[in-house]
Amino acid sequence: MFSTKLQEKSRRDVMKLAASGVFAPALSGWLPLLARAAPTGGKGKAKSCILLWMDGGPSHKDTWDLKPDSKGAGEFKPIKTAAPGVEISEHLPKVAQVMNHGLVVRGMTTPEGAHPRAKYYMHTGFREGQGGVVYPSLGSIVSQEMGKADNTVPNYVAIGGRSYGSGFLGPKHQPLLVTDPARGVEDLKSAVSAAQLGNRTGLLEQMEKAFHREQSADSITDHKTTYERAVRLMQSKEAKAFDIAGDGTKGKYGSGRFADGVVMARRLIEVGVPFVEVSLGGWDTHQDNFERVKSLSGQVDSALSALVTDLKEKGLLDSTLIVWMGEFGRTPNINTRGAKPGRDHFPRAWSLAMFGGGLKGGQVLGKTDKEGASVEDRPTTAQDFLATVCELLGIDHTKKNETPTGRPIQIVEKPKPFTKDVA
Description:
Blueprint: H1 4-19, E1 48-54, E2 78-80, E3 87-89, H2 93-96, E4 102-108, H3 115-124, H4 138-146, E5 156-159, E6 176-178, H5 194-214, H6 218-235, H7 257-270, E7 275-280, H8 289-313, E8 320-325, E9 329-330, E10 345-346, E11 350-356, E12 363-365, E13 367-368, E14 375-377, H9 382-393, E15 400-402, E16 408-410
Parallel strand pairs: 1-7, 1-8, 4-12, 5-6, 5-7
Antiparallel strand pairs: 2-3, 4-11, 8-11, 9-10, 13-14, 15-16
């Protein structure tokens, strides 16, 4: 997303920092991602968002919208939940117990059926390549609109996999990437003492004053802000949120990277990070759909239910919006390929789920037909969904941001948010 010139400046700045001994030898590429601009704020009840991204496109008929009497029903059975009249998969029993805090959107319908384009579309609300612009993701929009200028922690963190970034908003709103939450962010550990670190950063600042004064390009200012904030994060008490080793709640979230990522997401929300995305891959179930979805559902079941419960107990559920979603759904019929058949891509009708964030829980929005093949009631587009998230967070989705060429781009174009439908 950055020009070649900017990439070259990035490498030079990072090398200068490394040569000065400011950072530990293992550089993971996180430094250019931390700078922040002043927020505009909003009036929404939610103050933060955790996006649980189900990479690959989960089957709606095997999770949130089972059709036991349909032709392609499969082998999973629906179970009752804490929300009267709402049933979900038998392999989400713990989530079923917290569905009184949740909303299932069963009327999602979108145009993109290829993974890369669908992921981009659901993160940004725009088709890839549309208008020749690289659009910002939801996380970057939240970073821009809700992030705090004096925050010592980043305003957008992506855990467990790469996410979509800031587009034309620039590097200030790129996510901090945490590949393995069990290892945290290793570069937060300084190779020298606190006193030495202070002396070296001070020396670096003096050496570069003239350069920054003479070269006033935005990219240079961005990188100056970046390493200043990086050092502040290294020295802050909030950095402990990235270390989940001693977290006493870990056990109930399950095991593995996704569970660890959800624990870290909760800890980051608690110290003021407004947007965290945690990825769980493996949902592209063209083959062996039922065993794979059963296994993946088990990971979701423990982690999501524990997250909702913990946030509720801490008094943070109303101020934290949790979203569970992928890039599309999967075919209502089961394919006939291979010894263990599965389901193929299906963007025409699918489901996502939301918890907390000021939503009235225990609800279902939208309805698919008896086969789960088309939306019969309240079709919901990507724009409707993204505008609703913005409204819950107090972000004005009609606001227009300017590209570097001065072109105004509305945050979400032509939406019909469903906030009032589920209030």
